[in-house]
Amino acid sequence: MVNLRDFDLNLLVIFTNIMEQRSISKVASELGLSPSAVSHALGRLRVMLNDQLFYRTAKGLEPTDRAREIIVQVEDGLSCLSSAISAQQQFVPAESDRVFSMQVANYISGFFLPSFARRVREEAPNITIDILPFSISSESSGWDRVDAQIRLTPGRLKPKAVRSQRLMADDVVVLMRPDHPRAAEPMTAELYARLPHVKLSQASTGTTVIDDALAGRGLERHSALVVDSWDTIPDMLLTTDLIAIAPRRLLDLDPRLKHLKAAPLPLEEVVFSFDLCWDPNSEKESGHKWLCETIIDVFNAEIKQIEP
């Protein structure tokens, strides 16, 4: 076992930066050190870990197998230390100018974000909320880019490898214009797959649950149009023969949907479950706790307005 009293944790910070930059000079510039200081730190780390860690190539420094082996644990350890230190610093919403990043499933962003923005402006007028697409990873070390998600989870399963709280589970409906040529027919899985769809991109929803359910039946839907925002879909349905799906509660939240025909999605196992997800390494930090509590409060308040 390494005696931590003799171990300089700054060496691990330099190690993670070299893994990212693959260049001594770039790391030196980023950390405000001289290249020789970074090289000396790497030399000390090589002795302590008994491994070369990096070797030079024409494209820059390449990590050894040992370096690739330990990087995830090192990043997780540094993240835990950072969170533990940050947790001792009191977050005051009214005084903070912090930047939070979130991913929000597009189906619910239309009714959630306006109320969330009003609440944030009232409590923390100087902070910034950066809404990122789901194409940015939020698995494992990717959580350094995202503070929280409101995401779709297939069926009634719970998300894995993250902390989560279920916000809502809702049935799914198929939408089309009332005078659609197939409006009078029973909605079956085969008919649903055959009709031309307008659907949200995976970057907007964060899930492929519908396509997975159809594939399990040997079916594939006809995606005539893929868009990145729900906002344009209802108007398309009113003027074309396209169909789309939505959470049932959205019928009460978007007045345009009152003019459309809604039928149950003929994929019984599919439920739109919306979960708030976050990195367990961040949950004790006071600013992060405020963010999650605010999301939950706003979401619950919006849902109560449409419940009978």
Explain what the structure shows.
The structure is a single chain. With 308 residues, the protein is α/β, with parallel strands linked by helices. It folds into three domains: 4-86, Winged helix-like DNA-binding domain superfamily/Winged helix DNA-binding domain (Arc Repressor Mutant, subunit A, Orthogonal Bundle); 99-168 and 273-306, 3-Layer(aba) Sandwich (D-Maltodextrin-Binding Protein, domain 2); 172-270, 3-Layer(aba) Sandwich (D-Maltodextrin-Binding Protein, domain 2), CATH 3.40.190.10. The protein contains eleven helices and twelve strands. The chain has helices spanning 10-21, 24-31, 35-49, 65-86, 106-123, 189-194, 202-205, 209-215, 233-239, 250-253, 286-306; strands spanning 54-57, 60-63, 99-104, 128-131, 148-154, 163-170, 172-176, 196-200, 222-227, 244-247, 261-264, 272-278. The strands form four sheets. The chain has a five-stranded mixed beta sheet. It has a three-stranded antiparallel beta sheet with strand order 10-7-11. It has a two-stranded antiparallel sheet with strand order 1-2. Residues 7-64 form the HTH lysR-type domain.
Short description:
This protein has 308 residues and is an alpha/beta fold.
Secondary structure layout:
Layout: H1 10-21, H2 24-31, H3 35-49, E1 54-57, E2 60-63, H4 65-86, E3 99-104, H5 106-123, E4 128-131, E5 148-154, E6 163-170, E7 172-176, H6 189-194, E8 196-200, H7 202-205, H8 209-215, E9 222-227, H9 233-239, E10 244-247, H10 250-253, E11 261-264, E12 272-278, H11 286-306
Helix pairs in contact: 1-2, 1-3, 1-4, 2-3, 5-11
Organism: Marinobacter gudaonensis
Domain HTH lysR-type: 7-64
Keywords: DNA-binding, Transcription, Transcription regulation
